[in-house]
Amino acid sequence: MSNRRFSALDKALAHTTQKAPDYPSRITGLYGADVFGDRVMRDYLPEDVFKAVAGHKNKAEPIDRKIADQVASAMKSWALSKGATHYCHWFMPLNGATAEKHDAFFTPALDNQSMEMFGGAQLVLQEPDASSLPSGGLRNTFEARGYTAWDPSSPAFIVDNTLCIPTIFIAYTGESLDFKMPLLKSISVLDKVAVEVCQMFDKSIEQVFPTLGWEQEYFLVDEALFHARPDLVMTGRTLLGHIPAKGQQMEDHYFGAIPSRVSSFMKAFELEAWKLGIPVKTRHNEVAPNQYELAPVYEEANIAVDHNQLVMGIMDRVARKHRFRVLFHEKPFAGVNGSGKHNNYSLATNTGKNLLSPGHTPKTNLLFLTFFVNIIKAVHEHAELLRAVIASAGNDHRLGANEAPPAIVSIFIGSQLTGILDDLEKMVKEKKMSPDEKTELKLNIGKIPRLIIDNTDRNRTSPLAFTGNKFEFRAVGSSANCGPSLIVLNTILADSLKIFKKQVDKAMDQGVDKDEAIFRTLRRFIMESRNILFEGNGYGEEWVREAEKRGLSNISNTPDALAAYISDKTKSLFVETGVFSERELVARWEIRHENYAKVIQIESRSLADLAGNHIIPTAIRYQNILVENVRGLKEILPPEQFKRQSELQVYVIGKISDHISSIRQYVKEMIEKRKEANALETPEHRSAFYCREVLPYFDKIRYHVDKLEVLIDDELWTLPKYRELLFVK
Ligand code: ADP
Ligand code: MG
Predict the structure, then answer these.
(1) pLDDT the model gives residue 157
(2) Ligand found nearest the CA of 216
(3) Which of 278, 286, 345, 470 to mutate for ligand 1's pocket (most ligand atoms within 8 Å of CB)?
(4) Which of 196, 520, 682, 720 has its CA 20 to 30 A from that of 231?
(5) 13-45: pLDDT as tens digits
(6) pLDDT tens digit sequence for 450-508
(7) Could you give the angle at the alpha carbon of 21 between the alpha carbons of 20 and 22, nearest 5°?
(8) Distance CA 302, CA 145 (A)
(9) Ligand 1 in contact with 281 (CB < 6 A)?
(10) 3-state secondary structure of 672
(11) C-beta separation of 278 from 260 below 8 A
(12) Paired residues of 170 in beta bridges
């Protein structure tokens, strides 16, 4: 009898290292070669058209049609010269993937001739029949029209002979159905108020935009082994599997030498990324076996989000060529670390300044402090929304699991900056400061840059850490689109800056001088948001108790976390800033519940299938062998000897029997619960029920399956084991 696991292992071990691509002698020659970026546009477009496109960055409104016609014509010539045959609108619907629908440039004409067609109309607006993408009730299927509209702030690119045009995706009513449109809106809302605040310090600042540097963690699994694990194929994670004798405890994988098969894969996808102008820079082994990370140089946030989505797609494609599968799931394997996507976030200006980087004068440092404190205040005010935005079935396994930030949102800023905030709080009073006091305070503020230099962040347990010149949001899941977290960060910061500006203006109206008005407002903000600052160990039990005392919420699962998405506070935040209408917000909330319920449903079905069709039959087969063996021994062994061996053997047979019965019982109950869940009317009730009533069976079933795995003859076990999935490279 053939065993699927062994034939998969044979195949996996036979997979050899694919040849790594030849790098050109200089990457700069190839960097951005497949992108219709500024360099190409300058070549292909008249000066005024180029300027119009360049000036239309991060706007959620359409560009002038005449401009679009000229850009389309240039894009077409460029794309055809690069061998492109098709074009598509590339967008990010709410299912979390990217979507594209290809059309050929080639258009037949009546007289048996044909021509390559692509004009402003095709560039600017398309109507894909995308009625099967999630809309949370924003589109009725009988009026399913959805439009994709060109986003001139993100450059078009060529993948696989197709010109891809980044677009937003909206319903026919104008409501957004994607992650890009609200991101652009949030960027522009933030720009407006941040510029107003900056101008209190520096009149030359006319534009502020968020920057994002993501760090992407992932696992690689050999393709043959992947296919022999239906749970990986169906759900992206293992639902079963005994922890191997050796996991990550030796800490020998982190930053270790990259295996040649893996390095060859990395080189191949990096080359693809560079051609698309994605500034991929860093690669290394992560903590868990077969876990890796890559990080690019940071970019303007809208483009960085596009690039992260693109890279995930490229990695998936290239991995297949190298006979790997990439797992972006947040927790593919129990017992070793899961994967996150750290979002490094900062703000840049048209003057080339990083607003979260302290400068050389007290004035620039006060500007720094203003943004620094406003972010703290914003996070304090909307911590639950931040928790909600990163919530997903996958990320629930990570957050608070002592390997990733806890589910409690807090900020780490380091002892030096804590000291500065303490000083500010102590020294400033709600009364006029003496000139001496002011000088002392300014002197203190002047010292910031020197203080921060050695204050690099070593606290890996914090969900949000200040790391010298940026905040690092570490709680984002590895499979997530970066868009939603950025939308929240931009919007809550914009909201906080608006309140800040109002309070400063009010004090100034009452005759307080500008610096002092700023000091006083910052002091108030610091006092109001102290609670969110935490410098200790985020993994510790004490923090859970301390956070509770402070009144910080600690929400362990997605359905509960999502409540903050549609709280009155969140609604007024988004509606007032114009980033989401109430309908759009509720639609997103509904889609997230729906998605959660579906993920647990699929996992539960896969688990039941594995238990019933793989585990139990294997267990019975082995049990029968043992039973036969006992019968045979009885015939030939002397009674004393028979007694000794058979007693233990019968004990094992009984153990197997207990495990089989428990599995059968739990699977039966789980299926009953699933039926109840599916009968519920609304997505939020379904997701809550799946979470509370169905999910708990996973661990119960797994416990018995994993026990069987160690009892049963290795030769009979059909599913690749952890030691194979994690250590075959
Ligand atoms: P590490 O966190 O591993 O010590 P760095 O601090 O150098 O490494 O950078 C980590 C990530 O932060 C990189 O992806 C980088 O692009 C990003 N980053 C650096 N500066 C900024 C910035 N101003 N805005 C956004 N991201 C940034
Ligand atoms: Mg980092």
Answers:
(1) 97
(2) 1
(3) 470
(4) 682
(5) 999 888 888 877 788 889 999 999 998 999 999
(6) 666 555 556 788 999 999 899 999 999 999 999 999 999 999 999 999 999 999 999 99
(7) 120
(8) 25
(9) no
(10) helix
(11) no
(12) 147, 176
| Span 600-611, pLDDT tens digits | 999 999 999 999
Q: Cα–Cα distances in Å, from 645 out to 623, 640, 708?
A: 15, 9, 20
CA–CA distance, 377 with 355 (Å, rounded to integer): 16
Closest by Cα among 684, 663, 685, 686 to 674: 686
d(CA 225, CA 232): 9
666 ligand 1 Cβ < 6 A: no
Question: Is-contact 123 68, C-beta < 8 A?
Answer: yes
Spell out the domains of the chain, with CATH numbers in brackets: 31-178 (3.10.20.70), 188-238+246-580 (3.30.590.10), 595-725 (1.20.120.1560)
Indicate the SS3 state at residue 662: helix
Check if 297 has its Cβ closer than 6 Å to any atom of ligand 1. yes
- Decide: 85 and 162 in contact? Cβ < 8 Å: yes
Q: Distance between CA atoms of 129 and 446, rounded to whole angstroms?
A: 58
Mapped onto helix, strand or coil, the DSSP state of residue 349 is strand
- For every residue of 442-456, which 3-state class applies, written as one string? HHHHHCHHHHHHCCC
Rounded to the nearest angstrom, the distance between the alpha carbon of 355 and the centre of ligand 1 is 14
Q: Confirm or reject: Cβ of 470 under 6 Å from ligand 1.
A: yes
Residue type, 500: F
Cα-based distances in Å from 644 to 631, 648, 656: 14, 7, 19
* Ligand 1 atom showing the smallest separation from residue 468 Cα: 6
Give the ligand at the shortest distance from the Cα of 474.
Answer: 2
Minimum CA distance residue for ligand 1 atom 21: 298
478 in contact with ligand 1, CB cutoff 6 A: no
Is-contact 343 214, C-beta < 8 A?
yes
As a whole number of angstroms, the distance between CA 53 and CA 71 comes to 8
